[in-house]
Amino acid sequence: MAMEIERRFLVKDESWRDLAEGLRYRQGYLSVDPARTVRVRVVGDDAWLTIKSQVSAMSRHEFEYAIPRADAEQLMDAACPMVVEKIRYRIKYAGHLWEVDEFFGENGGLLLAEIELSDEATEFVRPDWLGEEVTLDGRYTNAYLSQNPYRRWPK
Amino acid sequence: MAMEIERRFLVKDESWRDLAEGLRYRQGYLSVDPARTVRVRVVGDDAWLTIKSQVSAMSRHEFEYAIPRADAEQLMDAACPMVVEKIRYRIKYAGHLWEVDEFFGENGGLLLAEIELSDEATEFVRPDWLGEEVTLDGRYTNAYLSQNPYRRWPK
What we know:
The structure is a homodimer.
Chain A: E1 2-11, E2 22-31, E3 37-43, E4 46-54, E5 59-66, H1 69-79, E6 83-93, E7 96-103, E8 111-117, E9 130-133, H2 142-147
Antiparallel strand pairs in A: 1-5, 1-8, 1-9, 2-3, 2-6, 3-4, 4-5, 6-7, 7-8
Protein name (chains A, B): CYTH domain-containing protein
InterPro entries (chains A, B): CYTH-like_dom_sf, CYTH_domain, NeuTTM/CthTTM-like
Pfam families (chains A, B): CYTH
């Protein structure tokens, strides 16, 4: 078990695009309850089952297990209400790793940037392309987006 | 992924007790939705994460992964609303394996017998101690019992 501390932001322009290669992610949820989210994720030939249990708005216990990719595909088909599709770009900036997620399908149009921290109080430099922080807005979790995709949000 | 076909019965007397040794099971649920139940189980030094996705009242897709016992204990503590405790007795009868579960704690007083079949139409001989079939009664699933324990059922 690991502790995951994460902050999440909107992305305000496209200037980050030249900084990294993207990897395609597909993920579905067996539970979207913040006290016990259960995620199935496929990246390339690899797949994982991940359980997160919320400790605070930005901290979660995380348990992750590699599973056969064929199992993950079957789980997404048979047991997940919707699959979230995105390309994840990993960008190093001022000593921290940022992950920018570009969503597709029903979540198309959404860009989110996440930073993982070792402590809730850790300071970091905000890159120019970083927009408003949405860590405390539960709508921007992938679990929520799997049930209420971005394109269906009231404008 | 395997297909699990299971029928479930009440137990009407104690005559099965001399037929088998019991093993203690502890299990909690990260999702109790029949379309995607996620179970954490500890038996002795072993632990598993199991996902079942309902196909029909008696059939489910099943995906099971061994996980470290310490993870399972932490998951039950941190992320499962309640832990179901039981002793499971495995009893061979007329060519089939029966599992009799004797529940404890908030589910104390409940005895259930399960048989796993290779096909929904498979015939089997009912042992004398077998009571009413409850396969179609969702209250007798362990997932339901983890949220609505037997001792709190209206009498």
